[in-house]
Amino acid sequence: MRRKLVVGNWKMYGRLARNQTLLQGILDGVGQLRNADYAVCVPYPYLAQAQSMLQGSNVAWGAQNLSPHEEGAFTGAVAPGMLADFACRYVIIGHSERRGLFHESNEIAAAKFAAAQKAGLTPIFCVGETLSERESGVTEQVVAIQLDAVLSRFGAAALSRAVIAYEPVWAIGTGKTASPEQAQAVHAFIRRRIAQQDSQVAQGLCILYGGSVKPANAVELFAMPDIDGGLIGGASLVADEFVAICRAAQ
Ligand code: PGA
């Protein structure tokens, strides 16, 4: 049995005081839960705050992006080793907002994936189709190309130290969730594709669903055989909602 994982993606939200209340609420709500794993991926400036509040708890922390470079003259960028300095466990790679708003290609996402692993971080590698891609029936082709960016470069073994997040772009922040069956179909496709290279890695791989996960739909999504938890945006900013989703993963 794979363990479930619930990760909050705070995106560009937060302030010191608000974060403190949110993190305390999460600790109060999930601190005693033992049957799944939990994490929050926070904006860079709040990594120290997350570390100091969460260390020693069952809630891990991480970042939402990183530079593929170890160091150098890259103004404004953050190196993988810097995230490791703050004991990050996870880093989100290839989120559709990075791909869309910041023009990150599959090549860049792959380089960041490798850089994260080299620094000892677990990449949460995001894939997912747009609405027009789904409507034109090319969801599997799109997801396969995104997945192959890491699978063909680094092999299935690299995925044994990674998490995949399937996030249909049309479901992110829209309140429109993929149905459990729609999500399950793509999760199963991802697992099958990896199994063609290595069935053991595929069986052990944690594949999260992301896109308008709320307390009201988390239970039925997490009940699907290939959905191993969630990557939660909006609902991760409200302690009660995030805690309810974490409980749904129990
Ligand atoms: P959402 O975001 O839950 O607000 O749809 C998910 C994500 O972007 O990771």
Which range does the strand content fall in?
Answer: 15-25%
User: Could you say which structural class the secondary elements and strand pairing correspond to?
Assistant: alpha/beta
Q: What spatial order of strands do you see in the largest sheet? A: 1-2-3-4-5-6-7-8
Provide a count of the helices. 12
- Helical content band: 40-55%
Strands, count: 8
Could you say which overall geometry the principal axes of the C-alpha atoms support?
globular
3D structure, described in words:
It is a single chain. This protein is an alpha/beta fold and 250 residues long. It has one domain (4-248): Alpha-Beta Barrel (TIM Barrel). The chain contains twelve helices and eight strands. The chain has an eight-stranded parallel barrel, surrounded by seven helices. Helix 1 (16-30) packs parallel to helix 12. The model has no long low-confidence stretch (mean pLDDT 97). Bound molecules: 2-phosphoglycolic acid. Residues 9, 167, 172-173, 210-213, 231-235 line the site of 2-phosphoglycolic acid (PGA).
Topology (SSEs and partners):
Layout: E1 4-9, H1 16-30, E2 36-41, H2 47-54, E3 59-63, H3 80-85, E4 90-93, H4 96-101, H5 106-118, E5 122-127, H6 131-135, H7 139-154, H8 156-159, E6 163-166, H9 180-195, H10 199-204, E7 206-210, H11 215-222, E8 229-232, H12 239-248
Parallel strand pairs: 1-2, 1-8, 2-3, 3-4, 4-5, 5-6, 6-7, 7-8
Helix pairs in contact: 1-2, 1-12, 5-7, 7-9, 11-12
Bound molecules: 2-phosphoglycolic acid (PGA).
